Structure formats: structure tokens, C-alpha cells
Amino acid sequence: MHSRVLLALTPVLFTSMAFALDCDNAADQATMNQCAAQQHAAADKELNALYQQITTRLKSEPERKKSLVGAQRAWIAFRDAECNFSASGVEGGSVYPLIYSNCVTELTKARAETFKTYLKCQEGDLGCPVPGQ
Predict the structure, then answer these.
(1) How far apart are CA 106 and CA 84, in angstroms?
(2) How far is residue 54 from each of residues 27, 41, 97, 102, 132, measured CA to CA in Å?
(3) Contacts for 30 with CB less than 8 Å, ≥ 6 apart
(4) Domain edges within the chain
(5) Would you call 9 helix, strand, or coil by DSSP?
(6) What is the DSSP letter of 24?
(7) Which end of the chain is more exposed for a tag (fewer CB within 10 A), N or C?
(8) What is the pTM (predicted TM-score) of this model?
(9) For residue range 1-14, what is the model confidence (pLDDT) as tens digits?
(10) For position 13, what pLDDT does the model report?
(11) What's the pLDDT score for residue 9?
(12) CATH code matching the domain that covers 2-119, chosen among 2.60.40.10, 3.40.50.2300, 1.20.1270.180, 1.10.510.10
């Protein structure tokens, strides 16, 4: 399944570098798919930056960091399975990359919000797994 998504998004990787897309006025499926892929890439970049901030804060707590790594791997597996299911009704169609990317983007944004919450924990918050700065 993942190889099909990557294959479908390969043109996006090359054509999006050649020109700026007008995503607000996308009128064809290929452009909509490319815009969805760009939105996913932006959300993923933000999530990765937040993840790095958290792992930096956990550098002196290897067991908690290991727990985060495990949770993140499980979350990625969930995200991929959920979005595969969400887009399964259009599998093989030209709209599949759009539906799949939109799903992945929304779940990634939600995960980023969770990470932001972890990074804002107040000192003494016993329910927070990430120590303050």
C-alpha cells in the first residue's frame, strides 16, 4: 500500500519544486493531490521539530525517551492504518492521494498539538511526561 502512495506522490516531489502551486484555486485533481501532499509535508515537518524538542528534553531520562519512541512508532502505525482505511473507498482512483494525504495531515496536526501541550507543561504537573526547560 505504501509503495502505491509513494509512487502516486513521486510526480509531486519533482513538479512542486519546479513551480509554485496555487492551492487556493486548484481546479484539477493532480493539483489538488500535489497541494495535499505539500500540506502533509508541512505538518510532518512541524511534528518532527516538536518531536526533536521533546527528545532533547528527555536526553537525561532514557527510559522515558524509549517510551516516547515506542509511542511514536505505534502512533505512526495507527495513523497509516487509519488513513489506509479512510481512503479505501477510493483506492486505485485519482482522488486516493488527496483523501489519504488529507487524513494523514489531520492526524499529524492533532499529534503536533499533543506534543505542543507536552512542551508547555508547568513545573510540578505530575501528569506531564516531558520536563520543563
Answers:
(1) 14
(2) 40, 20, 30, 26, 10
(3) 11, 94
(4) 2-119
(5) helix
(6) G
(7) C
(8) 0.79
(9) 555 555 555 555 55
(10) 54
(11) 57
(12) 1.20.1270.180
**Is the separation of the CB atoms in 33 and 12 below 8 Å?**
yes
Residue whose entry in the numeric block shows the C-alpha cell 527528545:
55
Q: Who's near 111: CB < 8 A, 6+ residues apart?
A: 47, 75, 79
Q: How many CB atoms lie within 10 A of CB 75?
A: 15
Residue 56 amino acid letter:
T
- Residue-wise pLDDT for 102-112, tens only, equals 999 999 999 99
Q: Which three cell numbers stand for residue 9?
A: 506522490
What is the Rg, in whole angstroms, of the alpha carbon atoms belonging to the chain? Answer: 17
Each residue of 82-131: pLDDT tens digit? 999 999 999 999 999 999 999 999 999 999 999 999 999 887 888 889 98
Q: Give the residue carrying C-alpha cell 511514536.
A: 72
Please report where in the chains the cell 500540506 appears, as a residue. Answer: 39
**Amino acid letter, 91:** E
pLDDT in tens, 25-34: 878 888 888 9
Identify residue 8 by its one-letter amino acid code. Answer: A
